[in-house]
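Session log. Operator J.P. requested a structure for one protein chain; no other inputs attached. Running the standard single-chain path with token output.
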Amino acid sequence: MKDFFKFILNTIPRPLLIKVSYWVRPLISFYLKGTTYTDPIDGKSFRAFLPYGYGKQRSNALSPSTFSLERHRLLWLYLKNETTFFTSAKKVLHIAPEQCFLKQFKALSNLDYITADLNSPIADIKADICDLPFKEDTFDIILCNHVLEHIENDKKAMSELLRVLKPGGMGIFQVPQDLNREKTYEDFTITSPEERSKHFGQYDHVRIYGKDYFDKLRAVGFTVNEIDYSNTLPNNLIEKYCLVKGEILPVCFK
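Structure written below.
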């Protein structure tokens, strides 16, 4: 099964994969229903989660019901437990919206919720993150997760996120990050999907961020809190929700 999912991820274009997933998700959810693991986003439980990974496959990574990954479930728990995201009035921009969040966030009456992406078939607005079509100081919250590793001019993208965020506003910008690496590794002469997979872990990534990612955000003007939220959760919830310990949430303020 792991080889099958790896083949699917590396051969089917992401926009098509998103469309197809809406059809197959109910069938997979029914097949895997059980009590061992729970997706905190919708509260549904399963005997197993699905494997996931463009390179090495991670076991019990992808929720059958929402198609959330470990990072999505961690972010959900942080927003739910540590912020007023679900209760107070906020204008929210979600770049490259993940389907595991889309229905839930759109249903929140307290949010003025806008999604944007250059290619995603589920985004409201077609937009380039390096040239966002919004006025400065527009949004209270910006979510932009696992996007910047695809963008060559990530400094420009970070600056655009800062520009459209209100003073005092919050952004969470997760990226794949190697915390054993001091400096970010990038090489724009590497252009083939095969070589990018070899060097950066995925065929459409252009870098691997190191510990200096947080300082890159600070350099464009963000105040950054490096939050190891998984370390605050008990082990039984880490196992129940299929989380991975050690991912740092970059919670940014303007």
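Operator note: The CA atoms of residues 185 and 208 lie 5 Å apart.
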